[in-house]
Amino acid sequence: MSNTNIKKVRTSDLELKDRLVAINRVTKVTKGGRTFSFSAIVVVGNENGVVGYGLGKASEVTSAIAKGVEDAKKNLVKIPVINGTIPHKQEIRFGGSEVMIRPAAPGTGIIAGGAMRAVLESAGVKNVLAKSKGSSNPHNLVKATVSALCELRDAHSVAQLRGISMTKVFNG
Fold it and tell me: 58-67: per-residue pLDDT in tens?
């Protein structure tokens, strides 16, 4: 996520809801035997254009989830949501996962699966068509989806960037 469009958000005045995307049991082999611990990837958002993800690792599931939520609150970004959908189509690749998100008409709903659905619901997108290609690894899917949402630009930000009026953005 090395984009200049990323807008960090403070958590002080937000009501965030967290969604657990995946829990993974990991094993460390030591001299005394196997040591089990848990890794959890969590997505938080206020369902109004703010979303973030985090990874938590601990020896118990509940503490791994709690650590993931704390990490996600540190990585919140603001995304443009216009009339319940996204402003334009976006395709992003992260690791082995490739995601494509497209705006959809009102009433379509979120056409996405698994990890992508959790991110889009947390961001507050109500109508979107999404497709994941390549790896279905939840870590890479979440990172690719958040990265795709960060790349989105609305007409107002494009007008500001170019130093022109909103009507010139649409009329050329």
Answer: 999 999 999 9
Q: In this structure, are residues 70 and 62 in contact, taking their beta carbons and an 8 Å threshold?
A: no
> Which of 33-37's residues contact partners 24+ apart within 8 Å by CB, and which partners?
37/64
pLDDT digits (tens, 9 = 90+) for 109-145: 999 988 999 999 999 999 999 999 999 999 999 999 9
Cα→Cα distances 24→21, 30, 95, Å: 10, 19, 19
Q: SS3 of 152, please?
A: coil
How many angstroms separate the CA atoms of 104 and 24, rounded?
A: 33
- Which uninterrupted H or E stretch holds 69? helix 61-74
Q: Compute the Cα dihedral for 155, 158, 163, 168 and give only its sign.
A: negative
Q: Tokens 């958590």 map to which residue?
A: 11
